[in-house]
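Protein chain data
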Amino acid sequence: MQGPWEDRDGVLRYRTRSGVELYRLPTRLFPELDGYVYLILTDSHRVLVDAGSGLPESWEDLQRGLEIVRARYGRPVDLPDLTAILITHGHIDHFGGLTFVRQRSPAPVFVHELDRRVLVNYPERLITVARELRHFLSQAGASPERQAALLDLYLSMKTMFQSTSVEGLLAEGELLFGIFRVHHTPGHCPGQVCLQIDEVLLTSDHILAHTTPHQAPERITRYTGLGHYLESLRRVAAIPDIALAFGGHEDPILNLYERIAAIETFHHQRLERVLEICQEPRTIMEISRTLFGRQYGYGVLLALLEAGAHVEYLYDRGYLQVANLDQLEKEPEAPIRYRRL
């Protein structure tokens, strides 16, 4: 890769055109998920962007990354020295580590207002989303046994976080601390933000180098859904002169605008595929199995949510219709079957 960067012991440092230092700290978030926490340094600010998942290995990796910044890059910074903590969105692999970080840092926490409630009242978030998810799974065609198993999976690693205070909000268009231009990009998560530092964009989970970020129906959580996501992609594509993007996972994105176009194309192809599948009446469970094949564990839930997001997008825009209205009138809890109009 070309550019003003260094990589020492896995911690990448990038200097923006105005001299802001960006450090990418690798972390193991969950047993099969890696990602990054970012440390941003200027003469007057020391800002942590995201905090990892909160699992012991994630916390150890964060500490190890900060040690490399001190030992290999010669920048004497540690958690007590932070001036702010920015959370890019309300998914636990990005904010779960706050439980540990806040024990060691007095720095204020900032998040977008649509994800503020996730941090300050986390039990409510779990209960309300689980309720909507249960309804979605029932209508998608999951058996009661499968519903219970998937809800257990959803909740299994989410009870380790304790609610915390939020001292500041990340507002669309603001230039926070004179460093971060905030771009609100809902879709993957209601309060998802991308943070622009000069020619660099921190895309978090909104845009990744290789994976098309996971989608879920808006009926479960407002301001998610494929419609919001595609609109946010177009808004990011309109930001001029981004030379490099760093995601919350995967490699740096060397051409952000090409990557956005590829993601849009991918989703439009998937929408066409759903329409093909629905030439005959299909439940979301059946659509998911056709799209993704046999899945196991948490992959079953992710596949169902992804299929549901695309079905919702098409149904809301009049490309799909409910094919079993008579059955639903007699059996309100029966799975919904969708057919192409």
